[in-house]
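Chain A, query sequence.
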Amino acid sequence: MLVLVVDSSTPAVTAALVEVSADGVALRSHRCTVDARAHGELLAPEVDAVLADVGARPADLTAIVAGLGPGPFTGLRVGLVTGATMGQVLGIPTYGVCSLDGIGHPAAAGEPVLAASDARRREVYWAVYDGAGQRIAGPEVDAPAVAAERARDLAVTVAVGDGAHRYADVLGLSVRAEPRYPDPVALARLAGERIRAGAPGERLTPLYLRRPDAVAATARKPVLP
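Chain A, predicted structure.
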């Protein structure tokens, strides 16, 4: 089963094609460009490129997996709108996975790990994973010092993700080089059981964790003469 994976929850704009079978998940093609200001311009060409790499058409897709975030409002919705629109047009199911799971799950290797991505405003989106890669805390958004304190309470000594790199001095944890951004193969694996079972598609609901900066006015402002 040929599956498209998209994620735009971090500065890394990602599209990948994976083959999902009873034996596991195999990567067929992958594009990733790190640019926090060009999610809308980059994702669609990346999707076209990974399809072209394997000589496939959109109609050959069986399902779409999308990273749900958490992530900044504008960038995150690019991937989710793309995934939802393609799923609707092609008549195939869409499945969502927490984007932090695509960082923390593959990083866990017998010990708990903190996965953190940059949330701007001097904060991080974070979650903690046990040694088997299961999420045991989060996702949440906090100052790095708060995330570090929560992680230490769970016996974490290692961190991954671009947020961990950015705030390594504050976290005070050993930071692994990779994965820095959500791994599309990990996202597909986490949705693999649903894909193989042909489970009904899911609404791709974003994990924003906080309100957008721009909000609608709730009342008219008085006009002075």
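DSSP finds seven helices and ten strands in the chain. The two ends are 67 Å apart (CA to CA).
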